[in-house]
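User: Predict the complex.
Assistant: Input components as received:
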Amino acid sequence: MIVVSNVSHRIGRAPILTDISLTLEKGGVTALIGPNGAGKSTLLSLIARLTPLQAGTITVDGLAVATTPGRTLARRLAVLPQDSAIDARLTVTELVGFGRFPHGAGRLTDADRAIVAASLQRFDLGDLAGRFIDTLSGGQRQRALVAMAHAQATDYLLLDEPLNNLDMQHARALMRTLRELADTERRTVLVVLHDINHAMAHADRVVALKDGRIAADGPPAAVAVPDVLERIFGYAMRVVDVDGDPVVLHHR
Amino acid sequence: MTSAALVSPRLYGVFAASVLALFAASLVVGAGSGTAALLLPSRLPRSLAALLAGAGLAIAGLVMQTIARNRFVEPSTVGATQSAGLGILAAAVFMPEAPIVLKMAAATLTALAGTALFLGLARRLPPTQPLLLPLFGIVYSSVVGAALTFLAWQADLLQFVEIWMNGEFSGVVRGRYELLFAAALMVALAWWAADRLTVAALGPAVATGLGLDLAATRRLGVVIVAVVSALTVVVVGALPFVGLVVPAMVSRLVGDNLRASLPLVALGGAGLVLAADIAGRLVRYPYEIPVGTILGVVGALVFLWLLWRGQHG
Ligand SMILES: Nc1ncnc2c1ncn2[C@@H]1O[C@H](COP(=O)(O)OP(=O)(O)OP(=O)(O)O)[C@@H](O)[C@H]1O
Ligand SMILES: [Mg+2]
């Protein structure tokens, strides 16, 4: 369980997050949505202790992120930052292999190698395994980074806009993989999404941030409501029913 | 962490064999009367010094580039070499009779401080401009170097500074070069920390997410850079470009996973410095050109070529 209590964050004097409290039960996919600058990445970085906490507390399985040793946390929680500009020349296999870093003390064991191979397979990277990441396309690199987070094999997976650069096929495959991880392995996934229909189709719960506050929180059906969406995003959009699922016509 | 299986073992073999051949050549090549057996007592320390200093400096460059996340820095462009000079100068002034090990310790301390200060100041630079860091480094090194020259002039020790800042192996003798074995220790330390250093190169967000203690890893890196810089300055004098050129070439060959590249960088550095020293003995035979001069010319050319290749290839 991830518990965020009364977290506020400022950069300089500008309030970025204001008094956020949020509990993520174990298991399931939670989508974090909201306009640009709402504070989604900031919240994710605070939970993943990439940014030091200023006010409030955050615990992961009861461990306070502010005081728990980095390695202990890295065995429970993996994070894909929004822009992980990696300019080191590593092969895809090497990069994904570093997902095992928190677990080992040096060389990869056979078990580690099996996990790495499974992650490569799962994100359709088999053909790219030997390529240097600086030779990949944006979407291929993104998949390699997600695979590295996956190879960390943690109970909690935090992904900041993992669909960036992905084509439709791979975006759908990634969302289904996240769903599968939650359903079959009881993993807890918190994923920042801009494509609201992916959020509606694959998440159990949708949390919307706006101006550093929680603007909506509930199952997809409760958020996929024209009034709620207009409050979050600032313009009116139609929501239609397709075979019982809400589809947001946000692009018209 | 990850296997080095991608790098063919033959590549390691080729590198190791080349270094061995150069080492053997270094034992026999050059001016001097008498048989090889007579020359051996002076040539052996000289060749070992070139081998150790080369490997150490190449690794120091690699480590510096890894913790600074920038391919264009090395000990002499981050102020480490010049700061080490300040330490020996202080030792020469305040404890002229002290044993070499103490002078070495003084040089290490100032090199540590100088490198740490560089990294602290560099943190304020915008990360989006990768060439700003080496530029700042060159200015910073020049300022420290100028301070060194001024203080040495005041103390009337200017000719020593010239010796420290331009590497040469002809003066290498028993009783002094043995210090360089500590460079091998630093190479071993870097090998021990290879995975952590590679993770640090992935950037603060990814490294923290993987549970790396980034600050501790940086400190370890600074220690390696400072000790190697101090060692080389004290024993043979500064050797430019080794730390820049060798890691850059190896990165092109096998990438940046230190577990795979580090042995090649160490061997490459040893080979380059041995070759430069041999060349220095032959170019104006029977006179010698200091190895630092040869490395300055060759290193600058290779580096320009690498820069150009990076843009066009
Ligand atoms: N270094 C900084 N200095 C000043 N303001 C910052 C800084 N970093 C972030 N901010 C501000 O904090 C706010 C929240 O940023 P954050 O990255 O969390 O937004 P986000 O919801 O992830 O947006 P996006 O959808 O664009 O990724 C933004 O208004 C942003 O301008
Ligand atoms: Mg963001």
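The radius of gyration of chain B is 19 Å.
Let me know if you want any component modeled separately.
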